[in-house]
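Please check this:
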Amino acid sequence: MGSLHDQSKLYDTQDLRTGAAAAGLSYVGAYVINTYKSYDNFLQDKYALLPAVIIICVAVVMFIIGLIGCCATFRESRVGLGVFLAIILVIFIAEVSAFVLGFVYREKVKTDVQGTMHLVFEKYDGKNPESAVVDYLQERLHCCGVKNYSDWTTTRWFNSTGNNSVPLSCCRQDMKNCTGHLDQPQELNTRGCAEELESGLQSVISYAMLVILGFAIVKFFGMLSVCVLTCKREDSGYQPLYSGVFA
């Protein structure tokens, strides 16, 4: 009886782990998608969101199979537990796939960002939607220009204004009287936005990859534990009361 109790307890623990993992993966996937949406004007390759989409899909499936696992445990169903373990294996493969895709797209971020950012900055005129996006980026990341603040001198907006200044969004937050004039560079954020955005996005992807890897490892060992104890139960020759043995 103690062995059966231990098996039931392990299954319950596995179901709780599945639910917790589903919640954790949902958060990570949503966090990655929300970060990308904040800067989607500077990202051409929308497939970079594929790992995050996989994570959320896996989280939904994990929540469902957590319920399936609970039902299978309650009924002591060998078939139910078999299906439960098979789906966990599929989820494990999906998590590994998301990890690999994250690694691939992490390396593509740099090329993607720099190519798109030049086009968006060139459209800046201080009024259009692209201008709002650029100002938001520069204020949020405390940066100025694509590679550095001098990039503004080659834009049509800079040449049309003729006042030898950059947008006010380039001003440092602690400089309340900043006018954006290039003859006062100490008042400006001098770092380029491309490097800042690349670093930020790569950090988000790396964070997601570590979380995925951690959950995949936990899922792998949890799956092995359930398999081992399920086999032990079969070897013990135990049959539930409702099986007809005592009928």
